[in-house]
Amino acid sequence: MSRAKTSFSTYGVGRIAATIRPTRTRSALTSKAQEAYAITPDEIARSAFEAFRADAETAPPLTLRGGNAVDSYDDAEPFDAACDEATDAYIEAYAFWGLGYLDAQSWRHYLPLLISYAFRRPKDPAMAVEALIRSLRPPDRYPPRLATLTAEQETVVVAFLETLALGDGSGHMQEDAQQALEEWWLPGARHRPRPEDVAALCSAPVTYDLVERGRYRLVLPAAFASSGARRIAEEFRTVEVWRGILCGDVPTLVAVDVTPLAGRHLGHVMERAAAGLRAASVKRRHLRVPGATRSERLDGLTRGDSPIEPERIVIVGAVIRDEVVLLTVRSWPRDDVEAVLDRIVAAFEIVAHG
């Protein structure tokens, strides 16, 4: 397969604010509008490399090859100029499975390369373009990707998606591009939150509900949803998981695992739990859990999918008789989120039973 890496020396264009304009309404997405703008795929590709120049010239913290490894439950290797040369063969080998794991900086690094690839390889033999369009659709991830683009970068993305939506390519690609435009990129897009709405959600007070189970009590944000208690008979343990959004936009997971101590030291149980969460670093903190005969707390960060996006974890272990109750809270390192995590941990208590 031929090598098709694109470089800035190939394109070297100026800004396109005056030549590519985002569509104003859905009704403007017509062939007539496309003819009026007269923007060719080559112009859009050149403009993409100009708009994303700073990101494209910086090595990505997580490569497509690394994202593909993460998808296979392997550790991502760091960027290597030889191994990660973005040829067509490289994109076809790694983009479909790897793109979804990229942090915002790494994603922006690859966007102009993928836009150029999409125009040169319209048949999309390895579904790399499908993955690209999917990455341009909401909901935005956390930490955000879609919301990090500048106005100039958004203009390029809109022009790219319009060209696909109005083109004569495969039907599903046209439909996906149209959906992306309507969901996020056109004015009044139905799934793009307004900045003032996000700010209101972030500043809204958190309300809490008391959760009582046979072995423990918790106080959780009222909006969190439970998976229901699940008994894992072969391991003699019971697990329940709650998920929700904190402070407007931060996905958070809370899990409680009730399991036999089986002669193990509590510290060993805690270390195993941290290892299972891919903890990159943890530190012990003193914590007394009401009702427990022994208790410990570990605070730390996971390795995350990307090296620059570690997740925040808190693990609390509480012993009652021959059982250990493990509380795990997994979220993101942000001050307003930390305050809620501390509230959850502080309210955790063991319920004695006969």
User: How would the global form be characterised?
Assistant: elongated
Order of helices and strands: HHHHHHHHHHHEEEEEEHEEEEHE
Kindly provide the radius of gyration, computed on alpha-carbon positions and rounded to a whole number of angstroms.
24 Å
The tally of beta strands, per DSSP, is 11
Number of domains: 2
Count of helical regions: 13
- Secondary-structure-based class equals alpha+beta
Largest sheet: 8 strands, antiparallel
Task: Explain what the structure shows.
With 354 residues, the protein is of the alpha+beta class. It folds into 2 domains: 8-192, no CATH class; 201-350, 3-Layer(aba) Sandwich (Protein Transport Mog1p, Chain A). The chain is built from 13 helices and 11 strands. It has helices at 8-11, 31-37, 41-51, 53-56, 64-71, 88-98, 104-120, 128-135, 151-166, 171-185, 195-203, 266-276, 335-347; strands spanning 208-212, 216-221, 225-226, 230-232, 237-246, 250-260, 279-285, 294-302, 312-320, 323-331, 349-350. Strands 3, 4, 5, 6, 7, 8, 9 and 10 form an 8-stranded antiparallel β-sheet that branches. Strands 1-2-11 form a 3-stranded antiparallel β-sheet. A hairpin with a 3-residue loop joins strand 5 and strand 6 (250-260). The longest helix is centred in the first third of the chain and has 17 residues, at 104-120. The N and C termini lie far apart (70 Å).
